[in-house]
Specification:
alpha/beta, 377 residues, 13 strands, 5-stranded mixed beta sheet, 14 helices, binds glutamic acid, 8-stranded mixed beta sheet
Length: 377
């Protein structure tokens, strides 16, 4: 089961490392462990796999150096200062450890906007492609010192999924301080069982993360991602056709253990085009289009969303912004890019396509959300 991450099946791999693995309880970097991981990475690169890293730990490490309370998460200003101090130390360490294995490290600090804005996203992807082709190992993190609350990922699980999707990676391994996905929270239930393989990201799976409150508050006190953020990452990965594993990194040579059947593997079922994968993983959603049953059925069958099927609009969006399409039960069934801004959309909802030109005074687009720029959720 576990060879989906072997170099032969997975030419391009992204590895995300949680803060709890990088920084020990005293706030020092876990250098020896990182060394074993760097060796695993070097081995994979030698066997022809391209590997990139998303490394957390900047805030945790910087907080220790600055002597900040609460792991540097007391307030935004502390967190941003901690990240500035921790990131430079973390980069230096990765550069050194990878160099010891004959590898070149390449630092990229990413913001949410850089991945949401199409033009900046394409620049980012081109650089990433180039670095990987040249054999460098991109080491990435969120640019925590600049990103403010409204425009940040906050957790590196989704950040890694977005980067993996941007890079068209085939697999993503989340190294964490948990063993994998359990059917119940193992900290609270003795009977909790680990799920070894997930083939469908359905409601039953999403319900297994009963740690929703953890997002943004810090699960183990040093990182922010709990199981919920990992499952959100799994959804992004699925849409991008990327297999994903959650595996404990509390052992040396953690990447070897992936081949030995530890952890939980999420098998990607979908694999949308790169463009649709990008749309599906967008984090900034500007509006909601509520639709009737007929339109919901048409979308499920692969059609575009026409004005006639829209009953209500919410939000503030410009043409090209991301909108969610909501059915009569209140479920977001699809996400796409709006062909009209909110004002024009509001004027044409419920109206037949043939009426649009007379209402708006200009030649209509063929749909409010075209199927080529829409992905079902
Ligand atoms: N970007 C944060 C850091 O480097 C970590 C975010 C997370 O915990 O997922 O400290």
């Amino acid at each position: 089961m576990s060879n989906v991450f072997a170099p032969s099946h997975c030419p391009r791999l992204i590895v995300k490392i949680g803060s709890a693995l990088l920084v020990d309880t005293d706030g020092n970097a876990r250098r020896e462990w990182m060394q074993t991981l760097a060796k695993d990475i070097a081995q994979r690169i030698q066997s022809g796999q391209q590997v990139m890293i998303v490394s957390s730990g900047a805030i945790a490490l910087g907080a220790r150096k600055l002597g900040l309370k609460n792991g540097g998460r007391e307030n935004l200003c502390d967190a941003q200062s901690a990240a500035a101090v921790g990131q430079i130390a973390l980069s230096a360490l990765w550069a050194k450890l990878l160099a010891e294995q004959g590898l070149i490290a390449a630092q990229m600090l990413v913001t949410l906007d850089a991945l949401e804005d199409r033009r900046r996203y394409l620049n980012f992807t081109a650089t990433l492609d180039n670095l990987l082709a040249k054999g460098a190992v991109p080491v990435m993190n969120e640019n925590d010192s600049l990103a403010t609350d409204e425009i940040r990922f906050g957790d590196n699980d989704r950040l890694a999924a977005r980067i993996g999707q941007a890079a068209a990676a085939d697999g993503m391994i989340l190294l964490s301080d948990v063993d994998g996905l359990y059917d119940k929270d193992p900290a609270q239930h003795d009977t909790a069982r680990i799920i070894r393989e997930v083939r469908k990201m359905d409601e039953a799976i999403l319900a297994m993360a009963d740690d929703k409150s953890r997002i943004g508050t810090g699960a183990s006190g040093v990182g922010t991602g709990g199981m919920s953020s990992k499952l959100l990452a799994a959804k992004i990965a699925d849409m991008a056709g990327m297999n994903m594993a959650i595996i404990s990194g509390l052992h040396d040579h953690p990447l070897r253990r992936v081949q030995e059947g530890h952890g939980t593997i999420f098998h990607a079922q979908r694999g949308e085009s790169r463009h649709k994968g990008w749309i599906g993983g967008l984090q900034k959603i500007q509006g909601q289009l509520h639709i009737d049953d007929g339109a919901a059925k048409a979308i499920a069958e692969g059609s575009s969303l026409l004005s006639a099927g829209i009953v209500r609009i919410e939000g503030q969006f410009a043409r090209g912004d991301a909108v969610d399409i909501i059915d009569m039960h209140g479920t977001a069934i699809a996400r796409g890019l709006a062909e009209y801004d909110v004002l024009d959309s509001a004027r044409i909802i419920g109206r037949h396509s043939s009426e649009i030109e007379a209402i708006l005074g200009y030649s209509p687009r063929s749909a409010v959300v075209h199927r080529d720029r829409m992905v079902t959720l």
